[in-house]
Amino acid sequence: MELAVLNTSGSDTGRKVTLPASVFGAEPNEHAVYLVVKQYLANQRQGTHKSKERAEIAGSTKKLKKQKGTGTARAGSIKSPVFRGGGRIFGPKPRDYGFKLNKKVKQLAKRSALSAKATEASIAVVEDFAFDAPKTKDFVSILNNLSLGEKKTLVVLANDDKNIFLSSRNLSKSKVVTIDSLNTYDIIHYDQLVVCEGSVEKFANF
């Protein structure tokens, strides 16, 4: 798959890059994508929620009423879950929601997501750029030049660039990642994938 390389003004530079067919031409596997996204979202959960069971409630253990002859159910403690203020039955406890996935499943999911983006023609290749200082206005200007100002955009850099990252951090519809930290969830979450020219060759390792 060949794509034209654009400059930051949105014009064609005359150069073209070839995206590896093994990554961008793979047959999408929706179940693999589902599993990887599920794992990603599970890993975002803090798992710090906690409720008290009856053994942890502070309260009297005095028997509330006699065992028989009241016409109602027997009750032995105010901490019983059936009473207001009592403990909770099978309440949540701190836990880790993460689960294991095989490396090949993650690889298949990432290739599936990238292939889907290629099929939708939602990938643009831009020549490498840099900022002398963090400037959100300059970053927005580049997106507008590429006609992506209103779309949710994921920009993929070849290497970490602090100025570009800081320039995009305050934008709700844009995110900047390096090629090494690109994940399946981000690929499908954002409408448009903007790939810097220097990172294209690294897609062959996916």
TrEMBL record:
Concerning Gene3D superfamilies, the annotation shows:
3.40.1370.10
| Keyword Electron transport recorded | no
User: Which Pfam families does its entry note?
Assistant: Ribosomal_L4
Concerning InterPro entries, the annotation shows: Ribosomal_uL4, Ribosomal_uL4-like, Ribosomal_uL4_dom_sf
Q: Where does the record place the region Disordered?
A: 45-77
Q: Name one GO cellular component term.
A: ribosome
Citing just one GO molecular function, the answer is: rRNA binding
- GO biological process assignments: translation
What job does this protein perform? Answer: Forms part of the polypeptide exit tunnel.
The UniProt family comment states: Belongs to the universal ribosomal protein uL4 family.
Q: Describe its assembly.
A: Part of the 50S ribosomal subunit.
| Name of the protein this chain belongs to | Large ribosomal subunit protein uL4
Q: Which organism is it from?
A: Rapidithrix thailandica
